[in-house]
Amino acid sequence: MGNLYDYFAADDDSQALEFFTDDSMDDPFGTVGLKGADPYLLLGTVEAALTGATTAQVEAGPRFCTLLNDPDVEGPWLASLSDSLRDALASASEARLLEAATTWSRTEDGARTAPDLIADFLGRLAQLARHSPARHLYCGIFL
Question: Which domain holds residue 58?
Answer without folding.
Answer: 4-23+32-142
